[in-house]
Amino acid sequence: MINGADILPSFGSIILYTRYPLLFIALVNMDLKEKVIGKFILLFLLLIILQIPECTLRYLLGGVYGDHISWSLGPWGQFDLGIYAMYTLCLSVANGVVKGFKIMHLIFIGFLFILALLGEIKAFLLASPIVVIITIYFSLRQKKAKGRLLAVVLPLLSVVILYYAIHVWGYVHRESSDMLAVYFEKVTQIFKNPTIFFHTEEVDATSSRIFGSAYIWGYLRRDWKMILFGAGPGSLLAGNFLGNPGKIFDVVPYLNQLSVTLGETGVVGLVIYLWMLINIFRKIIFVNKTALSDKNHILSAALIGMWFFYTILGPIYDLVWRHDSPNFIFYVLIAYLYSSFVYKTNSPKNVPV
């Protein structure tokens, strides 16, 4: 095994990374029907809609917020809630741009931000402006409209989100540590000094979620083989499965997905995984440019927004490539598009959205 890694942890870690890409291959060959995907999307939307009254009442009547805001999603269910909210935001925005925004669109999107506020889902608030702009951009068909979007909507949306983050979020979470403000500060450090990702002396332990790559890079650079191939799959597992943590799990208290993948599989493994995701992105773009119906255009535009969160923004914050929620929804929808538009030569099918 790579760098002397144990067989069982290595195998378990590899399965964590490959189970949903393998599911994608299986779903493509199953030939998903439009009725199946339509029901899948409706059930997904129903799930997030039911979270609105549940989480709101738990906060108003019981004072529950943060990690335990959702009873039905279980302990620490705010991670799933954040993923559902982000993906629903993409679908709602794409639908509104293509078919025209109605008051219910805006109310529903507003409730998504309320869920993020009550669940203290910082990744949603930090990533949503970028995801929304990207989704709108690929929902529009006219180039002039795309130019106006970048010139007008982006600054306006950024101001609204910033106000929400500073005033509303700070008020609700005034009795607890306002970690959103802490993460805003960390993000600004990236623009000031991008090399912070590789120098542990410039970060502290509270920065491990965003700047975990600095700790991992400091560990890997002891040996050129570890730089290329990492410390071995499973090196950063917490030990919940086999009872023993990986050999570099204790290097830093918490890491994001990019740091964990780099630590376990090295530069080679990280590049291969990103290469796979980039190829998926190319297929979504192809569908977005060639889809004839509004419904398929909506789905492809929404998936582009989801892809940016899943591939770029989410991995900077959390272990999105390992958890079930971001993977299952993403790969089911991608498999439908791929089998309908790319894998086959027949005419596109319509997806109920």
Notes on the protein architecture:
The protein has 353 residues and is mainly α. The chain has one domain. It is 69% helix and 0% strand. The chain has 12 helices and no strands. It has helices at residues 7-30, 34-62, 78-99, 103-118, 122-139, 143-172, 179-192, 208-220, 224-229, 257-290, 294-313, 324-342. The protein is globular, with a radius of gyration of 21 Å. The protein starts with 6 loop residues before the first helix and ends in an 11-residue tail after the last helix. The model is unreliable at 345-353 (pLDDT under 50).
How is the topology of this model organized?
Layout: H1 7-30, H2 34-62, H3 78-99, H4 103-118, H5 122-139, H6 143-172, H7 179-192, H8 208-220, H9 224-229, H10 257-290, H11 294-313, H12 324-342
Transmembrane segments: 6-28, 40-61, 81-98, 105-138, 150-172, 226-242, 254-278, 298-316, 328-345
Protein name: O-antigen ligase domain-containing protein
Keywords: Membrane, Transmembrane, Transmembrane helix
> Total helix count?
12
Overall 3D form: globular
SSE ordering: HHHHHHHHHHHH
Helix amount:
55-70%
Backbone CA Rg:
21 Å
Rounded to the nearest angstrom, the distance between the terminal CA atoms is 46 Å
Q: What's the number of domains? A: 1
Q: What structural class results from the helix and strand content?
A: mainly alpha
Average the pLDDT over all residues and give the rounded result.
Answer: 79
Unreliable segments (pLDDT under 50, ≥5 consecutive)?
345-353
Q: Per DSSP, what share of the residues sits in E-state strands of 2 or more residues? A: under 5%
- Count all strands and give the number: 0
Taking the sheet with the most strands, its summary is:
none
Transmembrane segments: 6-28, 40-61, 81-98, 105-138, 150-172, 226-242, 254-278, 298-316, 328-345
Keywords: Membrane, Transmembrane, Transmembrane helix
Protein name: O-antigen ligase domain-containing protein
